[in-house]
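Researcher: I'm preparing a figure for a lab meeting and need a structural model of a single chain. I don't have an experimental structure, so a prediction will have to do for now. The sequence is pasted below. Please return the structure as tokens so I can convert it later.
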Amino acid sequence: MDYNFFIKISSGIFLVDKRLREHIDFCKRALDSANSPQYKILCMYTLGGCYREVGDAVSVRETMVKLLETMDSDRSIIYKIPSLQEVMEDMYVKACEIMGEYAISYSEYETYMHKIGEIRPLTEQQKGQLELIESLRNEGRDWTFNIMQLVLRYENDNRFGDAASLYSLLLTYRRQLRVSRDDINLAIHNYTANIYNLVLESMSYCKQKTYPCNPYNYLFILEKAIDIICEFQKDMSTKTEADDAIAKLNQQKNSLEEIQRRAVARFYDYTAPGYMSPGQLEEAIQENESGEKTLLPPGFRQATEAEQKEAVINSIKYLIFSGGCVYLGISGVYEDWGLNMDKSWVKTFIFILAFVCAFISLFVYKARKIRRLK
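Model: Understood. Here is the structure written out token by token.
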């Protein structure tokens, strides 16, 4: 699928309608078929944002690391296309900042923040943040303290996905972070609450919009959270908190599964103004992918949607003119236009003109998807 189509569907449908799992699937599909390194970077960056939204710290880290490794291995990705250089730099810098947020040590944080300087000078805000982190390190604060301070800001802003992802970071990397038992229990409780609220908020949003709330988009979040917390049922110091958390998440999961059993067809067949069903989206994606498979001649580019519509209109105009010529030649109306005209020659010319216009009409329609590079 092409770049513009990806942007349109990703930001205009999945984000707006809270279709979380469908958004992840879409990004992976686009990444697999991306035909340029810059497009691949965009797909990875968007995918990382999806994982943040669903509270999956491990996948955020894996995706951002892959993005940075790809760009570090070939810096021409950033500079090769001048019109995209600033966008590529922004994504590199933002990926470093995200890895700073999801770091599991002071040294890892500093590594990624200093990488920003390889692309563009650090801003005063970034320099100030580095100085603050260094002062906290000198005070003897452990890295868990920094994570907890950041997650509190997300919770105060009701950013449930971001908060949940940082709590999952604490739980998943608890040994490297040396998280205390009390903080683990706190993380289990708050991680569960944020995941629960994330799913509840998304479902409530769908109901307000009167769109179908497809459980497929949210069940995987609950299943992932349950898997993470299940590890803490084995330890007596965290078993009680883990049992309570799993019971709460299972209750929400069972409710979604019941909705899925009762109305699974409705989620895929429902249509309304401003809403595209999964079936309609699949048709649009397949049509775009088939268009992308068209081999472009050297010196040509893919035509925009507006240019394709204009080409179709021009094709119809030529076809109408061709039909007019055929009618003129058959009816013989031209015979009254001049006494000295060679009627047989004029008739031949009219039919030749009709043929040329019909050929141009067909050519314009067939070539509607490409444009010559300027």
